[in-house]
Task: structure prediction
Amino acid sequence: MKQLLLASAAFCVFSAQAQSCAGGLYLNPQVIRGEGASQTESALRELIEFVRPSGLSVAPVLNVKETQDVLAAVKRPDPPCWIYGNPVVGLASGYRPVAVNMEPIQSAVLILGDVGTVKDGKPVEIKTLPPDQQAKVLAKLKTTSCFGMKSGVTTSLVKAQNLCGKVEEVMPQQGLGQSYLPTKAAFHWQADRWVGLITRLQTAQASTMKSHHGTDERIHMAQLFIVPAANPSWGYGLYVRADAPADVVKKATAQLTGLKTSNPMLLKALDLGKTFEFTTPPDTAVADMKKNLAP
Result:
C-alpha cells in the first residue's frame, strides 16, 4: 500500500511538472491581408493538413492577429504546442524556432511628402538625394506619423529603428488588411502634413498615388520618398515548445526544410513566394533577430 501511495505521489508530481499542450496558433497571412472568411478558412485548412503528418497536435489550430493573442495563449493551462507565423509573434512566445523561411524581408517607410510638380510621380529613394536633403527628409520623418500593420514584421523593423515620430498600428480585419494602408495614409495626408506608410521595400518602390484618393486631391501631387529600415527580417516559420517530443519536432522541421512545392494554396498558407528556403536558425541568428525587432 505504501509503495502504491509513493508511486501515486510520484505520478502526481510528474503530471504537475509535465504541462500538456494542445494544438497550435497561426498568424494567418490571409487575415493580415484583410481577405474574406473563405480565403482565411482555406489557408487554415491547408496549414492543418500540412502539419498533421508530423505528429504535432492540430486540435485546435487557432488564428491570431497580434502578439497579445499569443502571449495570452501561452499562459493558458493547455498552451499551444506550436506557432506558425512571423518572428514578431513567434519570438514573443518564447518558443523555439525550428524552421524559418530565410528569404529576407526588407522593410521601408513610403513617405507622402510636400506638394510637388509631378502628378502621380514615382517614389525617390532617399539614398539618391544629396546629403543635405537626406538629412531634411529624415528629420521631418522624426515628426511624422506612420501607419503599419499590428504585429507586422515590417512595422516592428521600423519601430525598432525609431524612424517615425509616431507609429499607428492598424489591426487587421476582413477587408482592412495591408492593401488598406495606402488608403488610410492618403486620407491622413494634408499639404502641410506628411504621412508615412510602412511596407516592404519592393512594394514601396512600385507605389504611386494614381489609384488612391484622400480628403485633398493634391495627394496626387505629393512627393514620395522611400526610407528603408537598416535591418532585414526572415519570414514565416515554425516555433515549438521546448518540451515538444524530439522525434515530432525533427519530422516537422524536415517537412519544411525539405519542402518543394508550387501548390498556390499551400504557398499562400505558408506565406511563401516563388522562392523560399527554410532552415533552423542558430542561436546567434535568433539573438540578432530579437535585437532587430526590439523597439
